[in-house]
Amino acid sequence: MPVFYHLIIYVPVAAADTIRKALADGGAGRIGNYDSCSFSARGTGRFRPLKGAHPAIGSIGKIEEVEEERIEALVAGDKLKETLKRIREVHPYEEPAIHVLPMVDDESFLAD
């Protein structure tokens, strides 16, 4: 049975389409006979750059709030490394928030 992961990426709204393209180009978002599948929700991201940081948004020592999108997509294990590489190449943040969660395919619960 193939191994799948659930990717979650937080990105400023202006960069969301770039991240979705990187996901698709890396092979994420493939479900059956569909590709480029993802889900997005908007919210507010908060952070404070510390000494030594080189923030794309905000300034050292000041809490910043940014309208962001949370982008989620499914990726097969054999596509994970390439997908993560592509995301990091285009993500505007110095320290992008990327979560990789192992998944269990719902179809496995239906099998006899």
Describe what this molecule looks like in 3D.
The protein has one domain (4-104): Alpha-Beta Plaits (2-Layer Sandwich), CATH 3.30.70. It is elongated. The protein starts with a strand and ends with a helix. It has 112 residues and is of the alpha+beta class. The chain has 3 helices and 4 strands. The protein has a 4-stranded antiparallel sheet. 26% of the residues lie in helices and 34% in strands.
Defining key terms:
3 helices; four-stranded antiparallel β-sheet; 4 strands; alpha+beta; single chain; 112 residues; Alpha-Beta Plaits
In angstroms, what is the radius of gyration?
16 Å
Count of discrete alpha- or pi-helical segments spanning 4 or more residues: 3
Strand proportion, as a percent range, falls in 25-35%
Q: Return the CATH class.
A: Alpha Beta
Predict the CATH topology: Alpha-Beta Plaits
**Biggest sheet: strands, sense, closure?**
4 strands, antiparallel
Q: Roughly what is the average pLDDT, rounded to an integer? A: 93
Helical fraction equals 25-40%
C-alpha termini separation: 14 Å
Structural class: alpha+beta
- Unreliable stretches (pLDDT < 50, length at least 5) are none
What CATH architecture do you see?
Answer: 2-Layer Sandwich
Q: Please count the beta strands (DSSP E, at least 2 residues each).
A: 4
Give the topology string: H per helix, E per strand: EHEEHEH
The figure for the number of domains is 1
Gross morphology is: elongated
Strand order of the largest sheet: 2-3-1-4
